[in-house]
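During the second year of the project, the team shifted from modelling isolated chains to modelling whole assemblies. The rationale, set out in the original proposal, was that interfaces cannot be judged from single-chain predictions alone. As a representative example for this report, we include one of the complexes processed in the last quarter. Its constituent sequences, exactly as entered into the pipeline, are reproduced here:
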Amino acid sequence: MILNTWIVGLMVGQVTILATFTFCVLNALLIFLNWNYDSSDEKQYQLEKRTYLVSALMKFALVTHLFLFSLTALALDEISELLPGAMCAVGVLSANEYGFPYVYLKIVAVFLFSTWLIINYIDSKQENYPLVSLKYLLLIIIFPTIVFETVLFFKFTLNLDPQVITSCCGSIFNEKNIGVGGLISALPNRIALPALFAVAILSGFLAFSDVGARRGRRTLRTLEALTWIVFFILSLMVVISFISIYIYEMPTHRCPFCFLQSEYNFIGFPLYGLLFLAAISGFNRGILEWFKLNDSLAGVISTTQNNLGRIAVFSVLGFLLVGFTPFLVYYLKTGRLI
Amino acid sequence: MIKTIKATKIYNQGRTNEVTALFEASVEVEKGCIAVLKGPSGSGKTTLLSLVGCQSKPNSGEIRIDGKRVSKLPDKFLNAFKRQYMGFVFQNYQLIPDLTVSDNIMLPLLPSGIVFKERIRRADELMDQFDLTKRKKFKVKNLSGGEQQRTAIARALINRGKILLADEPTAHLDSQLTDEFLKIVGRIKDMDYTILMSSHDAKVCENPLVDRVFEMKDGRIIQ
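Output from the structure prediction step:
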């Protein structure tokens, strides 16, 4: 067990989020079971007051969760100095079997929480709380994510042993390594890059496509949401197999974490930030189609979808600009590829 | 225009100092009418006015304005609704003493996004109507009681709402100023406003301008 400032800070953050979330879910359950907008009795007014509180607390918890995500990246880097063999966050995450599952779950949680925040935002734009029951049901459904995340986080941090030698990123993200890291590193760029651009074009095509029937539109937008998930995964692969080698200017170094460090001007933060923003906006743009329950909601949701679409497009362009600039600079400087 | 259905307001609910200020109060005021809430101090007049004025929400029951269930509106929408529909004249006017008459009158328009020129135009129009033009640049603290009240009324009308609420508007006025106030109320009624006032002044309650009197006692409408 390592109890340094970073870990203690993350523990406090994680527990705060879980506690807030738990309080909100208990209230959400109460609201979900008793909500009756048409009623003007005391109980309903109290629920309406309670929904403000839950919304405000959840906004705090979920935004803190997003903030903690970037803080985790910094913390893991700092902790790497305490573990023999670790050169960056990858070494820390691979120090026990809980590290990577924790990060994967955190990524899933970010997507789920962003959806909840957007639905909450849309609900707050309406006079009659049309999405209250749905959004609290969703909150109850996503609650286990934060519980598992907290469990994994504590399993991971409490099982960090400074006596055990861990692997470095060079060995994990190596073409010869048998594992996910090795597989991604060995991915040929002639497949990964065209696949990434093809998915991006497909997302764009789906975004501009429309069908008359509501059911057809839902299918179309769901497909669009899925393409953004695929785009996100492919982008991470391209970051490891292509973008990273130009950032490090080394053919064998493919770590997706080292470029979060100051030596590489923290380029990883805008790179991942824009990727997350693009994928989350695009994903939610598609998912929102399912919440067009009436004409009034359809209007607000369509506006939100347009805004999310714009955010997604600009974020993708930003991601490509940040990610491919090292490649262009290298190519212009040397006239060759790595 | 104004309808309350079994509106109940309890302050400090669940605490030792719990007070039921209003209990199942149902009133209805038609558009363009003047209604007065009459009753002794502590009878729930101000509470009912604050519910109708969207200043607070009932614990149970409904408040409907122009058919809209305002008691169910989320705060964000309630504020917008209040700005659009309501004008309030408070018992002690609640003017800002160090601002001029003109600035006090224009104050409610600040969050509405109305351009400055239009604000000035509306304020000038109201000052002209209420004989305040000569006092335009005077600080409110230097005005007489009657002038302060006219300023408060002008401020309540600047948003061009549909409802004017007044809480004990004649409490600090002498007989002559009360007459003057009632004349102004008559003019406002002619502007198609619905007016709801609280008062225990017989001169107000028995005035022929008043269409309806609701008598209150211990938080209940008794007549």
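The radius of gyration of chain B is 17 Å. Chain B touches chain A through 17 residues (CB under 8 Å).
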